[in-house]
Automatic annotation (TrEMBL):
Location of the NIPSNAP domain: 7-100
Pfam family, one: NIPSNAP
Protein name as it appears in the record: NIPSNAP protein
InterPro entries: Dimeric_a/b-barrel (IPR011008), NIPSNAP (IPR012577)
Organism: Phytopseudomonas argentinensis
Amino acid sequence: MITCYLRYIIDPYQLAEFEHYAKLWIPLVEKFGGQHHGYFLPSEGANNVALALFSFPSLAAYEDYRERSMQDKECLAAFAYAQQNRCILSYERSFMRPVGVEPR
């Protein structure tokens, strides 16, 4: 299993738009075989950092998801939504191996 860790720098004035974007992606990741662990929005501390975690059975399964998502109408609409309202300023992606977590 591989877990993707996404750290977003968001526009704090577009928090509602980013939350909408996040809610779009949770079922999309699961549609392609992933297990979404949620988005984590600012509360205390930095007001412009958000996180997301989701897992796939393997890096190959993740890469398949990435390729297929670039052809999927719902995924493309979610990408366009974020681009249109500019709620995401930047992001970084890392991969981790979870310990003690079994895939669904």
